[in-house]
Amino acid sequence: MNTPPSFTTDALIAEDIDAYLHRHQHKSLLRFITCGSVDDGKSTLIGRLLYDSKMIFEDQLAALENDSKRHGTQGEEIDFALLVDGLAAEREQGITIDVAYRFFTTEKRKFIVADTPGHEQYTRNMVTGASTADLAVILVDARKGVLQQTRRHSWLVHLLGIRHVVLAVNKMDLVGYDRATFDAIVADYRAFAEAIGIADFTAIPISGFKGDNITAAPSASTPWYDGPALIAHLEGVEVDNAAAQTQSFRMPVQWVNRPNLDFRGFAGLIASGTVRVGDPVRIVPSGKTSTVSRIVTFDGDIEEAVAGQSVTLALADEVDCSRGDVIAAAGDPPQASDQFRATFVWMDEEALKPGRGYWLKLGTQTVTATIQAPEYEIDVNSREHLAAKTLGLNSIGVAEFATDRPITFEPYDTNRQLGGFILIDKFTNATVAAGMIAFSLRRADNIHWQPTAITRADHAGMKNQTPRVLWFTGLSGSGKSTIANAVEQQLHLMNRHTFLLDGDNVRHGLNRDLGFTEADRIENIRRVGEVAKLMADAGLIVLTAFISPFRAERQMVREMLPEGEFIEIFVDTPLSVAEARDVKGLYKKARSGQLKNFTGIDSPYEPPEHPEIRVNTVDMTPEQAARYIIEQIMPLK
Ligand SMILES: Nc1ncnc2c1ncn2[C@@H]1O[C@H](COP(=O)(O)OS(=O)(=O)O)[C@@H](OP(=O)(O)O)[C@H]1O
Ligand SMILES: Nc1ncnc2c1ncn2[C@@H]1O[C@H](COP(=O)(O)OP(=O)(O)O)[C@@H](O)[C@H]1O
Fold first, then answer.
1. Annotated catalytic residue within 548, 576, 592, 603
2. What is the distance between the terminal CA atoms of the chain, rounded to a whole angstrom?
3. Of the CATH numbers 3.20.110.10, 3.10.50.40, 1.20.140.10, 3.40.50.300, which one belongs to the domain with range 456-633?
4. Which of 132, 523, 609, 623 is deepest in the core (most CB within 10 A)?
């Protein structure tokens, strides 16, 4: 029989508070998640863990006893599920809908458990809970065995890099503690686990409700079971950074610590490996090398530090290194690339927009990333690959990513911290996806930025002007082309070197493969932005006349250019006026349903919030509007 683990008692708090706190501070921490369906008894199990570890305060306990009598499903006994299903809304629905983090502790270890919902739609919450966990407890109802949901959760757990899995076969009391039932479920799960690459798992027959094999094993009802109790297993499982410590040294720089002129250090959390004073290191992506001269911590200098420690490194040489860089073992640095392939989970109500720029955060790095249309979506139930043009809420897919500057990373399989990222919508600031990098694309490794001898300043200087991009935006028929034409003519008369890129014309050549879906419009503007940038690099004053209906893409082009070079001109013509003009008869077609996705009718237009210039074509003639614009942009030099 395994020795039952001893939970912390409150006695020590009263006797010697310092000893109590010291003991708690120096215990290791295990983060784990529980996955299971609403009825698998997950909340009851967590409630029991909290209850048995005495981490519930007295008043909460009293409330629990009251609540159990009122709402509980367990008669006069305490309903542990109520402890966990804290939210009123959840109680009403009878399901757990968000990730709840609970803390408890035993004599040997501290625990943070993320309770993730089992409900079909909530992949997002599950991913959130799993992203920081070292272990997953997958609950199965002994009466039902391995279900679709068990398989889905197990696959996600594996995908997210959790390498320790406990299969908790719950409600054994309801199957008469039958060994054959338990063995059959374990055999069934083993076959599945092997197929998806879960190398090993620990199966434990339990009853969260009755308490069997939770704190002591074997329980009197399962004399045939010779494994550990759940708590003993959680206390003993080796998840300290053993693996991370054997890998090569990497530390993403969080900030540069410069308290005075004599000291400059780079602070961060060591993601993997070991670093010693005197070690040669390389800074990625710059590639500069140096040697560690000091390792400074809160408690003074140390000779050696390992994965999981927060330290400040001082280097022997004055090298450029700032937030977002990674300091790594000189002989085995991680890669830096601006194109890679990744698996990602979409977590926003609004679907992925291929081609749009999102903030990508990886460790301490933040860059702009654009995502191509997914190569495929993965059916989380069957793991089949499905064709997909985008990803919606809770979908998982694989796609190629491109970033505006190289980021330093490692494949997620090797290093969760340097391979995992999130995507953030630039306008709403919502976290819209979580992803795992698979590998850098070879084409990114083989394409290098070629420095040219004649710079953009040389080009502009030769033309004796400052490059600009005059970006006209507005509804179809608002007057973009007419006014842009008039502006170009006037600039031409002033001996400026200009070029006008017009929507209709570009769509006949460079962009003739694009239509008017959201994704095509995003790609249209991306390409036009790139061309406008090249022309500005050549020293030209570029005028563009595209509807460019989305703020995000206009912002993307703005960010591609040096500050002040992008001038957004909003041709602010009301829809009714543009429609009345109907130069090309397109509004008529759109209204009659012959033309789909027409801007302003059944496709959105997002007006600029802070355009540099706004022209009102109701009050101004095209010539007046053009003159007004010229006045605004003068002196152009
Ligand atoms: N569905 C639909 N919606 C909007 N516009 C349509 C559509 N179908 C064809 N056209 C014609 O294409 C011109 C707009 O192309 P753009 O490249 O400026 O559009 S976008 O910026 O990609 O949204 C636009 O030209 P302008 O009238 O000069 O704006 C239209 O003539
Ligand atoms: N004040 C004005 N500014 C611009 N265009 C005007 C104005 N008043 C009338 N128009 C007419 O509106 C139409 C605008 O068409 P166009 O310039 O092709 O718009 P867009 O390029 O935005 O689709 C033209 O026929 C133009 O003569």
1. 548
2. 88
3. 3.40.50.300
4. 523
